[in-house]
C-alpha cells in the first residue's frame, strides 16, 4: 500500500512524524513525546464469521472484544496474530494506520477518541507516526463509533 498516495488522492490533511522504530504505542509515545492516549492502537481482528475488522482504541486503553462483538452483532471477535496482520492490513504491526488498508474492513473507533480533533496512528512503517483528523478517520472508513475499550 502507498499510504502517502492514498492520503493525497483522498485530499486528507495529515502530518508524518519520524521516530525511532517501535511496535507498541507506549514505546512510540516515549520516542516522540506525544501523549499515549492520543496514539491509537489499530488492531486487526477476525469475527467468528471470518470477517476482518479494524479496532481503533487509545494507546492507554485495552480493547474490549465483547463490546466490539456486540457493536458488530457477531458472537465473538479475536485479535489476529501479528504474523497474519500485515497481510490483511497491508502494513506491519506498529506501523498500521487508521485508514487506507489493503483489505476492506469494517472499522470501529472507540468513542473516547471523539474528544480530540486529531490523533496519531501508525504511519505505514514502524519508524513514523501519522497525524490525522478524527473526523477523516470516521469518514474514510465509514466507521462505527462506540465504547469498545476498558
Q: Which structural traits does this protein have?
A:
150 residues, alpha/beta, YbaK protein, three-stranded antiparallel sheet, 5 helices, 8 strands, 26% helix
Report on the architecture of this protein:
The chain has 150 residues and is an alpha/beta fold. The protein has one domain (3-146): YbaK/aminoacyl-tRNA synthetase-associated domain (YbaK protein, Alpha-Beta Complex), CATH 3.90.960. It is 26% helix and 28% strand. The protein has five helices and eight strands; from the N terminus they run H-E-H-E-E-H-E-H-E-E-E-H-E. A hairpin with a 5-residue loop joins strand 6 (118-122) and strand 7. The protein is globular. The mean pLDDT is 96.
Strand order of the largest sheet: 4-2-3-5-8
Structural class based on helices, strands and sheet pairing: alpha/beta
CATH architecture: Alpha-Beta Complex
Shape: globular
**CA-to-CA gap between the ends?**
31 Å
Calculate the mean pLDDT score and round it.
96
CATH topology annotation: YbaK protein
Largest sheet: 5 strands, mixed
Number of helical stretches of at least 4 residues = 5
Query: Level of helix content?
Result: 25-40%
How many individual β-strands? Answer: 8
At the first level of CATH, the class is Alpha Beta
As a percent range, the share of strand residues is 25-35%
Q: What oligomeric assembly is this protein in?
A: single chain
The gyration radius over C-alpha positions equals 14 Å
